[in-house]
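User: Design a sequence. Structure:
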């Protein structure tokens, strides 16, 4: 009964995995599918109109009459996706970036410490402006005549190549927009040493005779395609996300933007907005306690923008104001993200089991600080989790060991009541009660541990630290499948051994399913990252050791009890077959003797008693009592007719 339920659970879980994969493909179509849909509208491909602040943000300036002119900003549409200008190249110890003077956007950004899957000698391209896949950082000002991400900038110097030199802490790139109506705007990028944060600054000088109230916007513009190194078996989230203290962490799905059903807070004085993909993210991080307006929208098929609008306030004639917005473009390193902005560490997608995954990752990082090897840290983490659940696992394995011992008896019950299933189940339940076995005892402890194992699965799946992290020998990257499939094969062998330690199902079909399961799951593990397979293999080895020890203890105990029963049966048989002793035979034959023999025996006994009394002195009282109680003795020669008849 327990085996049936366990098999059903496994089959149900496997079915869910296939359904999940199919659903993910339906929900998040491949890049080729998305781009084919976009290609049909290529003639209408366009840039987005400039973002416009809402009434609530506009009124926050306190000058609604002046800010009304913002709505007349340049909303023109360009026919091409990106205009091309001069390229400015920047290299630091962390990133390789490219800024285009057309719009002053960051068009390309590679992460030096995170190589590409296609070529390990090239940095992973987090930002790029290719036709098949694009993701760029744009920014500008909103207002009449003010520069935006369509404006042609010029560089303040003739240097188009910047590199962080030894001893330097930062690299600064200054771009100038054309002066219009006495308004001079500079766009300044600052790249820091040892940091993925880039400061984007607007400096506005008002040389005109009128007061202006500009707004600034900062956005990420990208497609919905998954990154090139996305897992084929497990889909990770790709899309927009934001955080505010009131609403906490929210995902803004591209599918919801397509249907105009996305719900998120627009106005706040805290939080951030980001674009997420597996292992990496980009995010604008406004200063806390400053007014801002968030937005996310679909601009065209497979083109999405998410950003933030912030006011600069009133700029009087002759006055200069500036605003700086930090931009993060880098890996999802949980410990470092928490230091940049509140809630930014939540971009590490652990799913609905984040409350369990966070402490598991902390423990994994703790072990890594000891061993300096993420594979060794995974082994230690698996051992720790196994020790925590040792009592539950032991209870389950004890129940399985008992079932394994009584399997022959259960088989006889099934054969006896094969024609009456109701009576068979009733007899089996009575047997379980008699043997004090809980048929669900082996399943329930495993079910309790499933949430922890799923959380650990997502912890290893989302940890960017495992990307290109070596373990040993041929395993040089634990975030990708084993190149030689050695770990999955060993994993399959371990599952086969574990199935042999489990009770054998009485149903032949169930037995065949249990034999096939190790092979089926091994095929799944061929496509899982090496880190996940390593965790599963270590967990299986520990489970086999624990299960084998418990099963051996119970089987030895059952064997001892069986030997005792055999000894008892042998003793009983010996007692039945043992011949009677010589002393017992006269006693058994005495009732059959005739009266003469009986009298002879009595006379000999009395004579012996009299002789003993003569040899021992007796007290007068004892002698009198003896004489009084002495029975008359009949001699052997007495007449037979005078014998007393009983």
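Assistant: Done.
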């Amino acid at each position: 009964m327990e085996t049936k339920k366990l098999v059903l659970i496994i089959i149900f879980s496997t079915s869910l995995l296939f359904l999940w994969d199919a659903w993910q493909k339906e929900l998040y179509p491949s890049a080729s599918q998305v781009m084919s849909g976009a290609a049909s509208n290529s003639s209408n491909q366009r840039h987005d109109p400039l973002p416009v602040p809402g009434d609530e943000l506009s009124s926050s300036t306190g000058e609604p009459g002046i800010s009304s002119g913002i709505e007349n900003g340049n909303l023109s549409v360009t026919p091409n996706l990106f205009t091309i200008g001069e390229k400015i190249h920047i290299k630091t110890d962390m990133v390789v970036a490219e800024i285009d003077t057309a719009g002053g956007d960051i068009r390309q950004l590679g992460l030096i410490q995170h190589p590409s899957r296609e070529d390990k000698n090239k940095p992973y391209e987090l930002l790029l402006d290719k036709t098949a896949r694009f993701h760029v950082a744009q920014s500008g000002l909103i207002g009449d005549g003010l520069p935006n991400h369509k404006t042609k900038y010029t560089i303040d110097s003739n240097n188009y190549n910047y590199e962080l030199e030894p001893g330097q802490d930062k690299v600064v790139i200054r771009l100038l927009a054309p002066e219009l109506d006495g308004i001079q705007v500079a766009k300044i990028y600052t790249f820091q040493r040892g940091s993925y944060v880039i400061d984007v600054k607007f400096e506005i000088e008002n040389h005109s005779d009128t007061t202006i109230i500009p707004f600034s916007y900062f956005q990420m513009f990208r497609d919905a395609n998954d990154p090139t190194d996305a897992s084929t078996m497990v889909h990770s989230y790709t899309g927009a996300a934001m955080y505010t203290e009131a609403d906490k962490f929210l995902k803004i799905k591209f599918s919801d933007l397509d249907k105009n059903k996305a719900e998120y807070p627009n106005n706040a004085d805290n939080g951030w907005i980001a674009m997420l993909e597996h292992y990496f993210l980009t995010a604008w991080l406004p200063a806390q306690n400053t007014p801002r307006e968030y937005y996310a929208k679909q601009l065209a098929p497979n083109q999405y923008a998410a950003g933030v609008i912030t006011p600069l306030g009133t700029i009087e004639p002759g006055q200069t104001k500036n605003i700086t917005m930090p931009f993060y473009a880098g890996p999802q390193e949980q410990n470092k993200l928490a230091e940049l902005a509140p809630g930014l560490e939540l971009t590490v997608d652990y799913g609905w089991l984040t409350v369990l995954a966070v402490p598991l990752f902390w423990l994994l990082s703790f072990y890594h600080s000891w061993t300096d090897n993420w594979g060794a840290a995974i082994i230690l983490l698996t051992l720790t989790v196994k020790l925590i659940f040792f009592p539950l696992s032991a209870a389950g394995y004890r129940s399985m060991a008992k079932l394994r011992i009584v399997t022959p008896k259960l088989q006889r019950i099934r054969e006896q009541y094969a024609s009456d299933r109701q009576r068979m189940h009733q007899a089996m339940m009575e047997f379980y009660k008699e043997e004090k076995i809980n048929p669900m005892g082996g399943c329930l402890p495993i079910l309790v541990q499933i949430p922890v194992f799923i959380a650990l699965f997502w912890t290893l799946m989302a940890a960017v630290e495992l990307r290109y992290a070596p373990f040993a020998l041929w395993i040089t990257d634990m975030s990708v499948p084993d190149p030689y499939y050695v770990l999955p094969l060993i994993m399959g062998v371990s599952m086969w051994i574990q199935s042999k330690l489990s009770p054998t199902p009485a149903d032949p079909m169930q037995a065949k399913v249990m034999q096939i399961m190790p092979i089926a799951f091994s095929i799944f593990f061929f496509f899982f990252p090496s880190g996940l397979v390593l965790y599963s293999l270590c967990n299986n080895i520990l489970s086999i050791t624990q299960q084998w020890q418990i099963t051996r203890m119970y089987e030895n105990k059952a064997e001892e009890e069986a030997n005792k029963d055999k000894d008892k049966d042998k003793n009983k048989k010996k007692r039945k077959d043992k011949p009677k002793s010589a002393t017992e035979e006269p006693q058994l034959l005495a009732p059959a003797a005739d009266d003469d023999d009986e009298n002879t025996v009595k006379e000999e006994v009395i004579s012996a008693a009299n002789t003993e009394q003569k040899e021992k002195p007796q007290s007068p009282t004892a002698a009198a009592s003896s004489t009084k109680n002495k029975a008359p003795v009949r001699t052997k020669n007495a007449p037979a007719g005078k014998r007393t008849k009983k």
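DSSP finds 17 helices and 19 strands in the chain. The chain has a mean pLDDT of 76.
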